[in-house]
Design a protein that fits this description.
3 domains; mainly alpha; flat; RT_dom; 3-stranded mixed β-sheet; Transposon TX1 uncharacterized 149 kDa protein; Endo/exonu/phosph_ase_sf
Length: about 400
């Protein structure tokens, strides 16, 4: 057994993550003994070639060992999503090019529609630029390395002149540039950003990216109480679930024309729609403690940043649109206060006083809201077109 462990260490083998439970064998009195005896041992090179592989336990009708199924990964579900590459920012002139594209897009409609269309158009521009101008990082690295090798071989035969020495130095700089690009790209994919750019971490990043891919692999999902495992079943099940999420039965809807709402002023509505500034992005200078970092600082998501900025702006006028009799969204109050007030109201029944108690339990309340009603209420409260469009 010791020699077996030594061989595993010498070959740098490791066991694949196991889906379905941590143990592969159980036995003894009432199956109280459990162990992980069976495994698939893989090397790093093998993992790099088969990054979508996973393994899981199967039912054991006869043996006290669980059969283990090794899944090679299969076909990718759906198209590859577009992702912005941080390495593009290292390309000279890219930021100016990006700014020119963004300012050149002209669309009409609601502000959310304009933002969506401009992002889609920018995505197309970036894809074409990456394919036609920037190129594949691995290919560019090999081309630069071949040029360096060519000049080195020529130098063994004769002395290089000044122009040839400059050409070799240019090829070396190109190789350094593309090597850094590759490192940044794998750094984003691995999400282990605590390692600094410039170290030779590409191998580590590659390994972490494959590990994340295997850990996030979803073989089956339960939709409306039914387990789905086939690609088409999962796709149809998820689409149907979201199609039925916000149904509108139609028919009669109450009118709100005669209702009066507390309104915000014109100046306050204009401040809500001011152009975003860098100062509004939540951050803390000189952050050096873990408590200074929040999930918003760890996610490069435009929509989450926008949501945070809008929430901070709304906080300034929320007291004018939320009734003071409410427990939620009122500064200085906690939502748990409602439970204490409910208990006090319940105790009043013991004083022979007549009253009526009504308890409402709304499951996923925001998924049953009629959005036309919500937007109409916001318009009556004085919110501008950007907020209700």
């Amino acid at each position: 057994m010791r020699r077996f462990s030594e061989v595993i260490d010498e070959l740098a083998l490791r066991d694949l993550p196991l889906q379905g439970g941590p143990f592969t064998w159980s036995g003894g009195l009432n199956c109280q003994s459990r162990s992980r005896l069976d495994c698939f041992m893989i090397s790093e090179d093998w993992e790099n070639h088969f990054s979508g592989v996973s393994r899981s336990t199967l039912p054991r009708p006869v043996s006290d060992h669980f059969p283990i199924l090794l899944d090679g990964g299969g076909v990718r579900r759906g198209p590859i999503p577009f992702r912005f590459e941080n390495m593009w920012l290292k390309e000279e002139g890219f930021k100016e090019l990006l700014k020119g594209w963004w300012q050149g897009f002209n669309y009409s409609g609601s502000y959310s529609f304009i933002l969506t269309e401009k992002l889609n158009a920018l995505k197309t521009k970036l894809k074409n630029w990456n394919k036609e101008v920037f190129g594949k990082v691995g290919v560019n690295m090999r081309v630069a390395l071949d040029k360096v090798s060519f000049w080195d071989d020529l130098e063994r035969q004769r002395v290089l002149n000044k122009q040839e020495l400059e050409a070799r130095e240019e090829a070396r700089e190109d190789f350094k540039k593309w090597a850094l690009m590759e490192e940044i790209s794998w750094g984003r994919k691995s999400r282990e950003m605590w390692l600094k750019e410039g170290d030779k971490n590409t191998r580590f990043f590659h390994k972490m990216a494959n590990s994340n891919r295997m850990r996030n692999c979803l073989k089956k999902i339960k939709v409306n109480g039914i387990w789905l495992s086939e690609d088409q079943e999962i796709q149809r099940g998820v689409v149907r679930a979201y199609q039925n999420l916000l149904p509108d039965p139609g028919g009669w809807h109450p009118s709100m024309n005669c209702l009066e709402f507390d309104r915000i002023g014109v100046e306050e509505a204009a401040k809500l729609e001011e152009t975003f500034s860098v100062e509004e992005v939540p951050k803390k200078g000189g952050a050096n403690d873990l408590c200074n970092f929040r999930p918003i600082s760890l996610v490069g998501s435009l929509y989450k940043l926008l949501a945070k900025i809008l929430a901070n702006r709304l906080k300034k006028i929320v007291s004018k649109v939320v009734s003071p009799t409410q427990n939620a969204f009122v500064e200085g109050r906690q939502i748990l206060d409602a439970a204490l007030i409910a208990n006090e109201a319940k105790d009043s029944l013991k004083r022979d006083e007549s009253c009526v108690l009504c308890k409402l339990d709304l499951e996923k309340a925001y998924e049953h809201i009629n959005w036309d009603f919500l937007l109409t209420v916001m318009q009556k409260m004085g919110f501008g077109e950007k907020w209700t469009g």
